[in-house]
Amino acid sequence: MIVGSTVLIMTAPAGSVDPLSSFEAIASQRRSSLRVDPDHSVPDELVDRLIAVSATAPNHRRTFPWRFRIIIGNGRAELGDALAQDLVDANQPEAKVEKARSKYLRAPVVIAVAAIAGEDATMTAENRDAVSAAIQTLLLGATAAGLASYWSTGAAMTSVRFREFCGFDATDTTVGLVYLGWPNGDPPPIDRPAPESLRIGASTQTP
């Protein structure tokens, strides 16, 4: 932590493991990457564990707003066909249509995640926030398990065909598609700027 201009390193007792350092290592290793082997399957039980841990995200009023759809095997091609049809209807170039047909085959597992609507606009927004937190938890869990992951949004988020394919309700908000797979390459490092952080009020810490 930082007190004034002095940096204090929080450490665990000698001979023990510092839990925060372990988590920091996982978080810093996380990358958004599609450098995965599309033919190397991810065990169902591992995917189920990741979804279970993602549902520990903070959730105001305990609405448990997350909806997960695990798309594997030929389901990925079927999803591509559904979204490609949106492009056909919009008179998009054939090259773009064909790219849409194959894009979900890039990883062995694609997870669609949506948030349920709340009783009012505030709760609906809070539900989406909770689902976003759940996705981040899933991504960190995937990193800890040695998987590469990628959180995708885009046109699919508002596609009626996509919503119907996943069996989401018309009132649900699609928050993302998460690609999961075993890495077959190392993504480049990310130069993350320090987050803006400002203490307001008197410090209770003693230098």
UniProtKB/TrEMBL annotation:
<protein>
    <submittedName>
        <fullName>Unannotated protein</fullName>
    </submittedName>
</protein>
<feature type="domain" description="Nitroreductase">
    <location>
        <begin position="28"/>
        <end position="182"/>
    </location>
</feature>
<keyword id="KW-0288">FMN</keyword>
<dbReference type="InterPro" id="IPR026021">
    <property type="entry name" value="YdjA-like"/>
</dbReference>
<keyword id="KW-0285">Flavoprotein</keyword>
<comment type="similarity">
    <text>Belongs to the nitroreductase family.</text>
</comment>
<keyword id="KW-0521">NADP</keyword>
<dbReference type="InterPro" id="IPR029479">
    <property type="entry name" value="Nitroreductase"/>
</dbReference>
<dbReference type="GO" id="GO:0016491">
    <property type="term" value="F:oxidoreductase activity"/>
</dbReference>
<keyword id="KW-0560">Oxidoreductase</keyword>
<dbReference type="InterPro" id="IPR052530">
    <property type="entry name" value="NAD(P)H_nitroreductase"/>
</dbReference>
<keyword id="KW-0520">NAD</keyword>
<feature type="region of interest" description="Disordered">
    <location>
        <begin position="186"/>
        <end position="207"/>
    </location>
</feature>
<dbReference type="InterPro" id="IPR000415">
    <property type="entry name" value="Nitroreductase-like"/>
</dbReference>
<dbReference type="Pfam" id="PF00881">
    <property type="entry name" value="Nitroreductase"/>
</dbReference>
